[in-house]
Amino acid sequence: MNLNNQQYISHRLRRRTLLAYLLFGMLLACVMLALSWLTLEQKWRSAMNNSVSIIQDDLAAALAAKNESQAIATLQTLNKLLPLREAILREKQGAVLLRYEIERKEGAPWHAVFGFLPTIGAQLFELPTTATAPQSAAKGELWVELQPAVLMEELAQQTLPLWSTGLACLIILYLFHSIQLSQAIERPLHGILQRLAQINYNRPARHLLPLRGALRIQDELDVLASHINQMLLGIDSQLRRRKEIEDEIKTHRRHLEKLVHERTSELVELNKKFVQQQFDAKASALAAKQARWEAEKANQDKTRFLAAASHDLRQPLHAMSLFIEALQPQLTTRQAQEIHRNLARSLETMKELFNSLLDISKLEAGVLKPKKEHFPLQRIYDRLEVVFRQQAMDKGLDLRIVPSRSFIYSDPHLLEQVLVNLVSNAIKYTESGFIFIGCKREGKRARLLVWDSGPGIPPDDQGSVFKEFVQLSNPERDRSKGLGLGLSIVKRTCQLLNHPIRFSSQLEQGTRFEIIAPLGLNKSQRPTPPKATVAPLRYERVLVIDDDASILLGMKALLESWQLQPILAKSIEEALDLCKSYKQKPDLIISDLRLQAGVTGLDAIQRMHQHFRSNIPSLLITGDTAPDRVKLAYDSPYPLLHKPIKPAQLRSVCMSVLKMGAPQTS
């Protein structure tokens, strides 16, 4: 233990005691200075009042007579009575009649010491008009200022002896207090520290500190020694206990070493088995990863195959729909018109099959973005009534749609497509009985029900109803019953909307589907806008770019039937050459998304815009269902139509594009 700590403590005590005395001395000096200042102020103000009262009649007379020499003589008399610095004689209105100044005496040392005190040697006196007039009839004023050096010197003469006496007393008290601290604290503390330095902590109980009191504790140092003794006794007890614990630890350590040796041999065997199991698990994981990769690759190959097949089949179908629409005005006989209607219905069925493939491609590409809003559910139920009432009656089914006043928060278009697919499946597979459509409120959610009395789904097949291309009741693959994508689209759309879907089914008792959707806010419906009328197209030149000759011929026949002037081209270069020959830019550009040599319709539209230095209204047509191409088209600023296209739809989109103008592209 370092005994220098005792010196450090004694020095700290002396410094703090000295600081306390200094603060007390400064406070005492300030009190003495304040008392001296007040006494001096009273003295000089009394002297100034008495002196001015002696000469004020003479100054009043000099002021009345405007006798400057008499006023100066009177102020000289006042200077003998008081140590004047400056005296100003002026009229009541403020005009200065006489300024009497005395040379300023130097008193820099005392001014530096007492310069912070306020000025006490300046005062304003009012003078009467005559020597016998009362002061209330004053006409003049006298400003008197005394020499600051004289006042500071007198203040120092009164204060310094008091300060010297007080400082001597404080020094004596501090020395006496320091000696007392040394006797009462430093020596006992030094003795305690010496005893602590000599303690052998292996046997601390033999070095207990003595107490200065016989049977009782006298002061804080005795209390400290008592607590140190208790600590030493506690340390001694802990050392004894520690030795006992160390002996027990040695015994347990020998026993533990024996157990470790035995368990080590067991772990070696277990580790061999674990390594073998880990190797087998890694092999199984690699095999599973390989299988998953092959399954994903097969799914991607399937998607690419469907996209390619869909594009190749949509091309002739699109051309066929254009030719059929252009052929309609040419048919005059009833039999020809009936054949035309049958052809149109067949094309519509094929279009629905391809639209199912397109919906799957959109979902895989992630281009479908739900646009949720608050809307009445009855609006969807009314459309279901219109679409499916006749189909149900044709099959002799009882279609029950329970009216609902609930509002739903969802994407109305996507939710309607989900319900349309479910109701369509129910009518397709139910031969007799009923189809029930309703809604049940549960708190802040609604359960949308589609329940049929059809043949039901076998338990073994219920796990695959939402898979693609699965048709449980269509082993002969009748294409009039679809491709088996309806429930797969339903499942993916519900996941996109974040609406849980579940179903229950029993053989010969029917199937019930439930969709859980959040309830919306009940707001007043907006008035239905009036139905738009078909206005004639006002633009004559329409540039069509497509690498399929049959589609170009079909577009030519259709556009000419609308009294338009088509410009047909298979490539960008051919389109530029034709436009140069016309010497005018087209009013509308219609381009296929996929052209020859890896060129896209986006490239063609941009080249035409750059050539004509104008954003010509444009739209894209595609038969692709590949997710990457679908996403590329949807990310573009141009409207996108999927082949085969209804001529009425094409006409409507052309009118909308021409009305809005071309989008601004970078």
Characterize the structure shown:
It holds the Pfam family HisKA. It is an enzyme of class 2 (transferase). The protein has 666 residues and is an alpha/beta fold. It folds into three domains: 172 residues, no CATH class; 220 residues, Response regulator (Rossmann fold); 151 residues, Histidine kinase-like ATPase, C-terminal domain (Heat Shock Protein 90, 2-Layer Sandwich). 57% of the residues lie in helices and 14% in strands. The protein has 14 helices and 16 strands. It has a five-stranded mixed beta sheet with strand order 6-8-9-11-10. A five-stranded parallel beta sheet has the order 13-12-14-15-16, sandwiched between helices. Helix 12 links the parallel strand 14 and strand 15. Helix 1 runs antiparallel to helix 4, helix 5 crosses helix 10 and helix 6 packs across helix 9. The longest helix is centred in the middle third of the chain and has 108 residues. The chain is elongated and about 145 Å long. It starts with a helix and ends in a 6-residue tail after the last helix. About 5% of the residues have low confidence.
TL;DR of this structure?
The protein is α/β, with parallel strands linked by helices and 666 residues long. It is built from 14 helices and 16 strands. Helix content is 57%, strand content 14%.
Provide the descriptors you would attach to this structure in a database record:
alpha/beta, Rossmann fold, Heat Shock Protein 90, 3 domains, five-stranded mixed β-sheet, five-stranded parallel β-sheet, 14 helices, 57% helix, elongated, transmembrane
